[in-house]
């Protein structure tokens, strides 16, 4: 089995691993302001943050107000990524993982962990932030050019379980030695939501935030009407599997095609907490929800569940999703057609 230099390793070698940016890193910043008509401007800015390309587009009557709102949103993104990164030993998550317990944690982190436990219960364990020991095993094997051994995976699984996370006020403690958390499957969505809230607080309704496929929209696009969002082809072809329309809400996509550790994509960043293996039925899952945090967590969970269990989950928890299998078959939830563009 061949190991490849994937996007994660490229970013890592550039010093910009997901949720691992530091304030000293110089980031590209591309801005654009266009007058749409006599009353409206479209202002866009793109930056490299949370280990991905983040683009914010605002449509408003005031160019200055739009620009200020985008600036405030990016500042919020920078602030929050410093709290949630697992790659900085001095961050709250980094210290918690190293020590196994930490007191006086920021309220945003407490909220994130509580929400993650809620999604774990909601998805019957498919979404689990305590899979970090398995990811560490994958990453360690990749660096050595080997594959993780079954015994190593079994040992790593023993450290998994959100039921072993104890929260008391602003204090968190792990009840198993060697436990650690990764918020990669929910933090980006949470950060996008908070950035959108910041824009709305400044009186700007029409905006779209796209953080590497985690998208939150509000109001109208530049041509008027809902925002149109294309679903990426996991094979990176020219055609989009589908296009949807949204005026309010979010969509997030989880896939095996961006962060993987071998050419066959048998080991990638999405891990089944029960088996310690990466699910192999699907290439991507896109979920539409009221918040990007929910869409982010559910897209990861449905990827772990696979097509058949995802359909069963839909019966107990209404959600809109699009599944693309490894052999290219596309299926969707019952209500998906209502949001098609």
Describe this entry's structure for a reader.
It is a single chain. It is built from nine helices and 14 strands. The chain has helices at 7-13, 63-84, 92-99, 107-122, 132-144, 150-157, 187-201, 292-305, 307-316; strands spanning 29-35, 41-49, 52-60, 101-102, 165-168, 171-174, 206-211, 214-218, 227-230, 243-246, 248-255, 282-289, 320-325, 330-332. The strands form three sheets. It has a nine-stranded antiparallel sheet with strand order 1-2-3-7-8-11-12-13-14. Strands 4-6-5 form a three-stranded antiparallel sheet, with helices on one face. Strand 2 (41-49) and strand 3 (52-60) form a beta hairpin. Helix 2 (63-84) packs antiparallel against helix 7 (187-201) and helix 7 (187-201) runs antiparallel to helix 8.
Give a quick rundown of the structure:
This protein has helices at residues 7-13, 63-84, 92-99, 107-122, 132-144, 150-157, 187-201, 292-305, 307-316, and strands at residues 29-35, 41-49, 52-60, 101-102, 165-168, 171-174, 206-211, 214-218, 227-230, 243-246, 248-255, 282-289, 320-325, 330-332. It has 341 residues and is of the alpha+beta class. Residues 1-27 have low confidence and may be disordered.
Question: Helix and strand layout, with pairings?
Answer:
Elements: H1 7-13, E1 29-35, E2 41-49, E3 52-60, H2 63-84, H3 92-99, E4 101-102, H4 107-122, H5 132-144, H6 150-157, E5 165-168, E6 171-174, H7 187-201, E7 206-211, E8 214-218, E9 227-230, E10 243-246, E11 248-255, E12 282-289, H8 292-305, H9 307-316, E13 320-325, E14 330-332
Antiparallel strand pairs: 1-2, 2-3, 3-7, 4-6, 5-6, 7-8, 8-11, 9-10, 11-12, 12-13, 13-14
Helix pairs in contact: 2-7, 7-8
